[in-house]
């Protein structure tokens, strides 16, 4: 009976896990290892599109996805359309519901949980009814349509004011992009973009290095930052802050905090404050020997200095490659590859003010403004996209033997991108 690797989720981690597992199986088949014919790789997800989630703050988010069903077919991955809602590790099976609402059970020998994360929506009055988001494709599309429709509404202070709830990485990118989007929609009309951050500094998790550049960019873009306060109530015409201030707005965008897929609660074991499952160096869930976690579902040590993988595609893709490889390796009796990603880089979009590129866990700034912008554009339009449906190309891209870094800087493809677009840095 064939052995089966089941991957839950087809985001960055799930996609690369599937290709990496199939790559190892294929390599061993070429060596004549008989067990390779008995290992099946199955991905279960609502659709076979890789959503460019890091780009959903941009205009036209409906175009921010890439179909991957052809890549799966080329690589021998079986894709099942469905939503997994139950994991039973003791029985080595999951339960799923397909598009027609039919429930079924899928058994596994190795499970890779790569179902991503969602923005946290606390129990704030009016939040579920009146806040927009760029967390998921459908939410970003809803916001985009709303913004496009603003020009058809009667002019008012609320119509021309947008409040971004949260001043972290996503909140900054959303706020910095909004002036350009609103100018294209409202023309010469006056508008206001306001960021509300409960911390005393904008970008609290980014550290002090990039902060002066972020503050200057937001000031240049005329984005107002309200610090040390938070949104405590939303309604159809505005938001109320913890300071008691009320801001009239028809557009409040919630970006504050993320949590791992709730499926992590169905796997016994320790979880971190984001709900991510603790995993060992092989990305195996420490309490479930046949379950691996990757991407935003995994709390994985990135180095030996106490740093853990971030909830970003920069870490999700390598985590997926390692998890897929190791799940297949165990079934093929091949040595595992321990996960390590000691090099960390930040590339933060600042709209028409450019970008900030920094290296290291302390985010030491390397490039800023319009020098950094092409690097961000390269990441968003080239680096994060899947390979074409050519088996050799896809397997080459799925090789887990990466150098531990996001190669956005000094990357051969970046140099080509700059030359093709006539950009000098």
UniProtKB/TrEMBL annotation:
What range does the record give for the signal peptide? none
The FAD/NAD(P)-binding domain, residue ranges: 4-307
- From which organism does this entry originate? Xylaria multiplex
Membership in a protein family: Belongs to the NADH dehydrogenase family.
Q: Which UniProt keywords apply?
A: FAD, Flavoprotein, NAD, Oxidoreductase
This entry's Gene Ontology molecular function terms read: NADH dehydrogenase activity
The name of this protein is FAD/NAD(P)-binding domain-containing protein
Q: A Pfam family name for this chain?
A: Pyr_redox_2
